[in-house]
Amino acid sequence: MLYFPRDLPGFREAAMDLTISLPADVSEKAQKLADELGVSIDQFLALVIRQYLRDQRTDTVTETLDAVYENEPSTVDPIIVKLQSASLAREER
Fold first, then answer.
1. pTM for this one?
2. How far apart, in whole angstroms, are the C-alpha atoms of residue 7 and residue 4?
3. For the CA atoms of the chain, what is the radius of gyration?
4. With the C-alpha atoms ordered 17, 20, 25, 30, is the resulting torsion angle positive or negative?
5. CA pair distance 33, 27, nearest whole angstrom
6. Other C-beta atoms lying within 10 Å of the C-beta of residue 45
7. pLDDT tens digit at each of 93 positions of the chain
């Protein structure tokens, strides 16, 4: 399900005018999908851009973690494993 900020009670978003040129096929597909979702083309494009920016941030976090674990072990300390197992055994009683 897609979530639009306008669905929040009392939500008011500041807007900035922006003029863009899109290839005709992209524009037509975007307009068709916006119509299917019941939102304006402006709302649809804002949603798409927000999602893209969120994905880019996630990619950066993933790359950072990959770099950290490239040189660091990602295994759990055996003592922690034993403590967790003991704790679970007590909970099952």
1. 0.51
2. 6
3. 23
4. negative
5. 10
6. 16
7. 455 555 555 556 677 788 889 999 999 999 999 999 888 898 889 888 888 888 877 778 778 878 877 887 777 888 888 888 888 776 665
